[in-house]
Specification:
Blueprint (H helix, E strand, L loop, with lengths): L7 H8 L9 H11 L12 H7 L4 H19 L5 H34 L3 E6 L2 E6 L8 E3 L28
Antiparallel strand pairs: 1-2, 1-3
Helix pairs in contact: 3-5, 4-5
């Protein structure tokens, strides 16, 4: 796989792409089936129940649960009842419900932002320059980068003129 150490012709031959005309339709379909889309695999989403249980991992929540147990024990011992421990547990459970709701809202907002900021890129396919979503890139595509463009994937540069890269996005 060390494409950085291979010359451009070897890579073009391996992916069966023409450096001037880009991928043809048949090879594009074949590479898409073989390599999949140009996107990271999303983590499996947790169920609401698991998210709810995860709310109880916080140190302060554990302290409150212990306080509710101690309060209940002392209340029963002294005949005062479980009122204090029930109130503490209601607060803990409400906190967990609010935490799950906020987490779900944040996930949905992030998904919406990702859909809105889907980058487009220019490629050469079937002898034509096309603008496609970056997620549809496949190995063997010939990508055209202009000033201000985001680099849509790991690329091997074929030719450049006055290339400058701003790496600040990589250091966030």
């Amino acid at each position: 796989m060390n494409y950085w150490s291979k010359n451009i012709t070897e890579i073009a031959n391996e992916f069966e792409t023409d450096l001037e005309d880009g991928l043809n339709s048949e090879k594009l379909i074949e590479n898409t089936q073989k390599y999949g889309l140009n996107e990271l695999e999303a983590k499996k989403k947790q169920s609401l129940f698991v998210k709810f249980l995860n709310q109880f991992k916080d140190f302060m929540i554990i302290v409150l649960i212990i306080a509710a147990i101690v309060s209940g024990y002392v209340g029963i011992k002294e005949g005062e009842g479980l009122t204090d421990s029930i109130i503490i547990m209601i607060v803990v459970i409400m906190n967990a419900i609010i935490g799950v709701a906020q987490e779900n809202k944040a996930e949905k907002s992030l998904e919406a932002l990702q859909k809105m900021s889907a980058h487009m890129t220019k490629v050469i396919r079937n002898k034509n320059v096309q603008i496609i979503p970056a997620r549809e890139l496949v190995p063997g595509d010939v990508v055209i980068l202009d000033t201000g463009d985001y680099v849509p994937a790991d690329l091997r540069l074929i030719s450049t003129q006055n290339l400058k890269v701003q790496e600040s996005a990589l250091t966030r």
